Amino acid sequence: MKFKKSDLKEITHEDNPECFKDIPSLSKFKPVYCEIESVDDHGVRTYEQVFQYEGRYYQTNYITDLNNISPYEYEPEEIECIEVRQVVIEQVQYEAVSGG
Questions:
Q1: pLDDT digits over 3-57, tens only?
Q2: Which distant-in-sequence residues (6+ apart) come within 8 Å of 97 by Cβ?
Q3: How are beta strands 45-53 and 56-64 bridged, if at all?
Q4: pTM (2 decimals)?
């Protein structure tokens, strides 16, 4: 599904892309998840962002850098986002056994 770049920028902080804005007025969009996927040698950061829109979840990616690039800056006016779903993943970990 395509979304307007201006709407996606609304749910992302310009100064701190790791954090979402508090957006009670933008009721159709609910930020859910945002995490840095990678950082290259020049400081360009790639983010994965998930948001909820009309009861469905969508994922998109964007880049920023430390100086000039703001979220979605070089993207077209409409951005294709993929629909995703929540999945619970169990993870097995190991810990030391006392007295052994």
A1: 999 888 888 865 454 555 555 554 688 888 888 888 888 888 888 889 999 999 9
A2: none
A3: antiparallel
A4: 0.75
| Rounded (5°) CA angle 62-6-39 | 15
Predicted confidence (pLDDT) per residue in 70-87, tens digit: 888 889 999 999 999 999
3-state SS class at 5: helix
Beta strands in the chain (DSSP E): 2-4, 29-39, 45-53, 56-64, 78-80, 82-84
- The residue whose two tokens read 């790639």 is 46
Residue 6 to residue 22: CA distance in whole angstroms: 16
Task: Write the burial class of residue 58 (CB in 10 Å: 0-12 exposed, 13-18 middle, 19+ buried).
Answer: buried
Token digits for 65? 């850098």
Q: Which of 56, 53, 72 is nearest to 64 (CA)?
A: 72
